[in-house]
Amino acid sequence: MTKFWGILNNIESYICRTLLAVFVCLLFLQVIVRTLFNFSFSWVEELSVYMFVWFVFFGASYAAKMNAHNRVTFQFKFLPPRAIKYIEAFADLFWLFFNVYFIYLAIDFIFNKMNRFQSSQTLGFHLSWVYIVLPIAFTLMTIRILQVNYKKIILDEDLVDPDAIDLEEVRAETGADPIDIDSITQDQEKN
After folding, report:
1. How many distinct structural domains can be found in the chain?
2. Tens digit of pLDDT for each residue in 102-159?
3. In the chain, what is the greatest distance between 2 CA atoms, to the nearest angstrom?
4. Does residue 117 sit within a domain?
């Protein structure tokens, strides 16, 4: 049961990895076939575009899970860390409302307003199979936003941006000496 929850908790990561590997291999195959045999598969490009679109939306959900979406945070430098947590959660409420409304619009479009005869050009399947990623990914993103805010506010976990660089850790790994700013400015003044 623990393995099931582990897979479910990382579902976006697994989907993104699979999609990326498959569409890169397909595009590589297309390049090789075009270069060596002067031939191309018409369906590879279309399928790769659809897979890339799915990759982007599931990647956005994964970024929400990692608390790695871009935010303007300069104004938070002057506030206490406890207040920042609640202000970000309040801002995430607007994000949640947008997601819920977008999920409603996407489901309405796919099942009610979409042309019943609209199909992909070379693959021939109905385009609703492509657009179904919208309500799925935005639902996952909504769950991930709630999950991140639960961890930050209720469990009081400090979620670190995965792109943040810890200079002290880099210095420890590389054995580099800290830069002495005073000596640099003194050298510049002499010159």
Report:
1. 1
2. 999 999 999 998 888 888 888 888 889 999 999 999 999 999 999 999 988 888 887 7
3. 76
4. yes
β-bridge mates for residue 126, sequence order: 119
In this structure, is residue 43 part of a structural domain? yes
pTM: 0.79
Chain centroid to CA 122: 29
* Dihedral of alpha carbons 58, 64, 67, 70, sign: positive
Q: Look up residue 179 and give its two tokens.
A: 């830069």
Answer whether residue 176 is part of any domain: no
The domain containing residue 56 runs over which residues? Answer: 2-160
Residues 6+ apart with CB under 8 A from 71: 88, 91
In a domain, 185, yes or no: no
Question: Which residues on neighbouring strands pair with residue 119, listed in sequence order?
Answer: 126
d(CA 91, CA 72): 11
DSSP secondary structure, the chain, as one string: -HHHHHHHHTHHHHHHHHHHHHHHHHHHHHHHHHHHHS---HHHHHHHHHHHHHHHHHHHHHHHHTT-S----GGGGGS-HHHHHHHHHHHHHHHHHHHHHHHHHHHHIIIIIS-TT-B-TTT--BTHHHHTHHHHHHHHHHHHHHHHHIIIIIS---PPPTT---HHHHHHHHTPPPP-HHHHHHHHHH-
